[in-house]
Amino acid sequence: MARPSRAPERRAELIAVARRAVVERGVLNLRLRDIADGAGLSSGSVLYYFPTLADLLQEVQHEAVERFCTHREQAARGGTPRERLLATIRSGLPTGPDDELCVLLYELGTIARRDPVYAARHIALYERQVGIYTGILEAGAATGEFTLTADAVAIARNLVALEDGYGLHLTQAVPTLQRETAEAMLLSYARTACTLEEPS
């Protein structure tokens, strides 16, 4: 009887090694040799499972996007629209320069400037987050909990763009602001765009 293939397990190991390498070295400094060394393999062995380094990094990006969006979708479930909005805002900001998942997404985002495949997935990440916010805003408007000052999609796009901008500042080697400050500024915009008031 033939032994079961270890290819899926090996591919998952290489994705994990590549994920750590991107966070530690940065995507622009990453070499195939770094992945091979981290996995205890030759470069040729890595290429057996992934034809190019770009193919491997695409899988890393896919896994990171899915993990990030799933976390946000779970945060947005349950409660009133107001509670869901607050939870979603809090789930989108990095904790700081050591936030592995957010740093990973920002690093891989640099490739999206030049590679259509990465760009498409980066756009999907953005649109998926916009969709989360849009659903919450529309639910709040339907129940009368929110009075939107603009189209729900426009507000959602602004919220995600603000998160992205603040997130870049939070993940720098020397952050230019604290997470609490970024969250407060997002909430300030949300209160203006949705007439969101703190509960009494």
Automatic annotation (TrEMBL):
Domain of life: Bacteria
InterPro entries on file: BetI_C, Homeodomain-like_sf, HTH-type_TetR-like_transc_reg, HTH_TetR, Tet_transcr_reg_TetR-rel_C_sf
Matches recorded under Gene3D superfamilies: Tetracycline Repressor, domain 2
Record-annotated HTH tetR-type domain positions: 8-68
Keywords: DNA-binding, Repressor, Transcription, Transcription regulation
A single MF term (Gene Ontology): transcription cis-regulatory region binding
One Pfam match: TetR_C_6
DNA-binding region per UniProt: 31-50
PANTHER family: HTH-TYPE TRANSCRIPTIONAL REGULATOR BETI, HTH-TYPE TRANSCRIPTIONAL REGULATOR RUTR
Protein name: TetR/AcrR family transcriptional regulator
UniProt source species: Amycolatopsis iheyensis
